[in-house]
Amino acid sequence: MTDRENPVHYLRGYAEILAAVSATGRRLTRVEIESRRALGEQAAEAGHGLRTLVSEHLTAARSAWSRSPGSIDIALDAVQQAIDAFAEGYERAQRQAVRQEEAARREFIDDLLYGRSDLGRLAERAERFGLRLSHTHAVAVAEGPAAYDEGDAVPRQVEHALIGRFGDRNILITTKDGRLLCVAPGHQDEILTCFARQAHGATDGGRVAIGRPQPGPGGVVQSYEEALNALELGERLGLDEPVLRAADLLVYPVLTRDRQAMADLVLDALGPLKASRGGAQPLLDTLTAYFDCGCVAAEAARRLTLSVRALTYRLERIHKLTGANPADPAHRYMLQTAVIGARLLDWPAQDL
Q1: Going by C-beta distance under 8 Å and a sequence separation of 6 or more, which residues neighbour residue 245?
Q2: Model confidence over 258-282: pLDDT tens digits?
Q3: Which residue from 18, 57, 159, 351 could staple onto 64, CB 3.0 to 4.6 Å apart?
């Protein structure tokens, strides 16, 4: 066993200090206290337990005072000073280690979610945090009414619930830009489903989006971006579902891939609604409710707090202005696609 592996190594000079205090009755000098702090830091860095080291200090104190007895008060005061200084150094080293670990974890998460690091090196670093990036992973993102940081109560609550059920292998719970994230193996959808349930409750009804499973070191980035896009789509489209899956929303990115073509469709199909007395928005809301409930007039009227007769009048007005009949299957697809495009492009609030 090397000196640094032996706890007694971190008591060097301690017996001599106690002997000097016993002989003179003085307190520890500043240099002596600082030496205890330094040894405490070294012991922490070497991985020794503080409990064992304190016990070694007490044993050494008993042995030293049996050889040179003195005042009990002086003895206890000297031991207290020495152990306090040693523990302060030990705790200082531990806090520094925690800060370094947190910084390394944050740097890894940033690189993981932005794909800025060499993928091979990133995969090596990931194993330290329980992820095997050569496998397929999926990412869930939760957004609540407040912004969340790593040490907040909400992330801890969700993390404890998931680790209590699934263990901590291959699962990463973290935060990014005020949102709560979960990275999990792509074939274990039950983990992300549980995360969504826990996060929805812990964030006071916040919304959760789940990206598709994606393979390889870059798969986490792709799934994360899909989840973010799903959250944005949910906001733009006013979707009510608490959990959005990117796989269920693939049609919307397709529709907006050619933005200019979609803008042309919106203006051509719905632009005439601006001529209405109240502007385009009330009639656009009417079409949205009508299509969202499967073209059932009574249900659409209930959602809009209108009478069926008033809803029917609005639909007739839309037909007259646009030349397209929402109740006619031949016109319905074009109108519904235009309505979706208007919601995605935030028309008529934004000029196209």
Answers
A1: 209, 210, 212, 230
A2: 888 888 999 999 999 998 888 899 9
A3: 18
